[in-house]
C-alpha cells in the first residue's frame, strides 16, 4: 500500500491532500495525479495508489435511501448532497416536491441521460470516503456513469473531483465521470487554455468522462437542467 501523505499521525489519501484545492498548486497536483494513475494502470492496481488498507473496515456498506432532503422550512443552503438527492428524487407529481422549501429544486430534462441512483456507497466502509453522488445512464449507449458532482458555488479543483471519483469507483463496473455546472469555477478551469495545453492536465481528463450541467430555465424555484457530455 502506498501512502500519499500524512496529516499528523494519520495517512492521507491523495484526494484528501491539503494541497489539492490550492489553485497555486493546480498543475503540480495534476502532475502528481497523472503519475499515480499511470502507475496504477501499469500495475493494474488502483487500490494500491488511491486507498489505504488501514482505513477499510470489515463492515459492509448497506445502501440506504432515506429520502430527498425535503425541507419544511425555507432554506437557501443547497448543499452537494441536497442537490444530488433532488436531481434523483424530483417528480412533478410528488406532493413533497410541490411543498418543499428548498430555494432551488432540480428537474432533469435531458433526453439522452437519466439519473438512476444517488449516494451509492463504497462496498465496504472506508474512513474518509463518502460515495458516488449520482449514477447517470446514457440511454443511447446503455452505459452507466458514476458521477462526482459539485455545486456551482464550489471552489474545488477538477484534480480533486477526478481523484475522488477514481477512488470511489475502485472495484465497480461504472465508468468514472465528473459533472460541474455551466459558468462555475470548474467550468472555467476546464476551458482554461493554460491548463488545457498542459500534458498532465490533458491526461487526467482522459481518465474520466466529463459532463456539464446546463441550466435551461428556472420557474417557481424549479431549475430545468440537462447533462451535456463534453468528453
Main beta-sheet strand count, sense and barrel state: 7 strands, mixed
Query: What's the arrangement of strands in the largest beta sheet?
Result: 4-11-10-9-8-7-5
**Helical fraction:** 25-40%
Q: What series of H and E elements makes up the topology?
A: EEHHEHHEEEEEHEHHHEE
Which structural class should the secondary elements be placed in? alpha/beta
**Would you identify the regions where 5 or more consecutive residues have pLDDT less than 50?**
1-9
Overall pLDDT score: 87
N/C terminus separation: 32 Å
Q: Can you count the helices?
A: 8
Tally the beta strands: 11
Determine the strand fraction and express it as a percent band.
25-35%
Rg calculated over all Cα atoms: 18 Å
Q: Based on Cα principal axes, name the global outline.
A: globular
Domain count, please report it.
1
How would you explain this protein's 3D organization?
Strand 1 and strand 2 form a beta hairpin. The longest helix is centred in the first third of the chain and has 18 residues, at 26-43. The strands form 3 sheets. Strands 4-11-10-9-8-7-5 form a 7-stranded mixed sheet, with helices on both faces. The chain has one domain. The model is unreliable at 1-9 (pLDDT under 50). The chain starts with a strand and ends with a strand. It has 8 helices and 11 strands. Helix 1 crosses helix 8 (199-206). The protein has 231 residues and is α/β, with parallel strands linked by helices.
Amino acid at each position: 500500500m502506498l501512502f500519499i501523505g500524512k496529516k499528523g499521525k494519520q495517512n492521507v489519501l491523495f484526494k484528501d491532500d491539503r494541497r489539492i484545492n490550492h489553485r497555486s498548486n493546480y498543475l503540480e497536483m495534476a502532475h502528481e495525479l497523472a503519475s499515480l494513475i499511470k502507475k496504477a494502470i501499469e500495475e493494474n492496481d488502483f487500490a494500491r495508489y488511491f486507498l489505504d488498507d488501514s482505513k477499510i473496515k470489515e463492515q459492509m456498506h448497506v445502501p440506504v435511501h432515506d429520502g430527498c432532503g425535503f425541507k419544511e422550512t425555507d432554506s437557501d443552503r443547497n448543499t452537494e448532497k441536497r442537490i444530488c438527492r433532488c436531481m434523483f428524487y424530483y417528480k412533478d407529481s410528488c406532493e413533497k416536491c410541490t411543498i418543499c422549501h428548498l430555494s432551488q429544486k432540480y428537474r432533469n430534462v435531458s433526453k439522452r441521460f437519466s439519473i438512476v441512483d444517488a449516494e451509492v456507497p463504497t462496498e465496504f466502509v472506508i474512513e474518509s470516503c463518502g460515495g458516488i453522488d449520482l449514477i447517470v445512464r446514457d440511454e443511447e449507449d446503455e452505459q452507466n456513469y458514476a458521477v462526482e458532482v459539485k455545486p456551482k458555488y464550489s471552489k474545488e479543483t477538477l484534480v480533486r473531483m477526478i481523484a475522488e471519483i477514481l477512488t470511489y469507483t475502485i472495484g465497480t463496473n461504472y465508468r468514472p465521470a465528473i459533472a460541474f455546472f455551466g459558468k462555475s469555477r470548474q467550468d472555467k478551469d476546464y476551458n482554461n487554455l493554460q491548463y488545457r495545453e498542459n500534458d498532465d492536465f490533458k491526461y487526467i481528463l482522459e481518465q474520466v468522462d466529463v459532463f456539464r450541467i446546463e441550466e435551461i430555465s428556472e420557474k417557481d424555484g424549479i431549475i430545468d437542467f440537462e447533462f451535456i457530455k463534453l468528453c
